[in-house]
Amino acid sequence: MKEENTTIKKIKKLKRKLYMSTLKNKILLSALLTSTIMAYGMAFAENSVGLSYSGEKETLMNVPISPSEQNLQTVTAEPWYKVSEEGIQLEGPAFDEEGNLFFVEVFDGRVFKLSPEMVLTTILEKNDYSAAGLAIHNNGKLFIAGLGDFETGGTVFSISPDGTDMDVIIDESHEYLPDDLVFDEHGGFYFTDFRGNSSEPDGGMLYVSPNFSEITPVLPNLSIGNGVALNAEENVVWVSELSAGRLHRVSLASPGEIAPFGTAVPYHFTGTPDSMRTDVDGNVYVAMYGQARVMVFNRNGLPIGQILLPKRDEGHNLRSTSMAFKPGTNELFIFTNDGDGGEGSQIFKTHGFANGTPLYSHK
């Protein structure tokens, strides 16, 4: 048993070194880690009468990271602001030009504003819209995707930053379940349709013209369309498919029009991908709901890093939903809640590979 514990400690130490090492050292450490794990596994198999958690029961029962993702460059975000002692479903963060951070709460439909002075106010009280995503127009109005009753139809509506002057952009009669949205430089926007399940691909991703008069299906037949984000050049739109666990990369010929042979699925997730953001280098950041982490992909959809949230190994802060870059920086603010686990609803902070993609609100 003493030899077994020593080997486990050695493996954990090698993992820590691997996360913090340079590329050259990563190759050497990765080989050493692999050989150590294999040797340990073979020795343990010879002496064991069955399977064992090997001292990592809580992690393995909650959120073990897939073996193919364990060697990614990894950082842990730090606590930044606690929104509530309760585990409420936060989503849709976006900064305005004054530095206010707006975000929504799904099941009660509330819209919040966190000022640069860290003063939290509610600008839209409880309602039946079930707000799930938020994007800011360059005229300052907040556009909000609402799931409604999650069945018959939701809405996209706009309000002023003080919660007044509501206009409905897409009403329930269209029978979409709008979940997330992003503006392009023309003032049109892409949004995801949250309908369907793993065996019924009824959702999708659509484009709304700048005058809001036309809705064009772009990527239909998704098993719950969820996150959506544009790259800086706006010639690629990314979409996460929640129930099928897929990352879609869609090359555009023009707004709302897919380029010839322009669709691909570069990654299949182990788990549930939620909202996403991009940076100026073309990297894509995807919140992993139920895993307390954000995965990062390069412009081709290959995984290159991950951001973990504190206490994930103990099963806390797992409901990571979304994130926002502070404009003009690589500061990344990640939203999560702990359900009934006792950690409430929080915002964590870290830094991405590059500055966030400039959004329509700041153009």
Automatic annotation (TrEMBL):
InterPro entries: 6-blade_b-propeller_TolB-like (IPR011042), SGL (IPR013658), SMP-30/CGR1_Lactonase (IPR051262). Residues 91-336 form the SMP-30/Gluconolactonase/LRE-like region domain. It holds the Pfam family SGL. Keywords: Hydrolase. This is SMP-30/gluconolactonase/LRE family protein. The lineage of its organism: Bacteria, Pseudomonadati, Pseudomonadota, Gammaproteobacteria, Oceanospirillales.
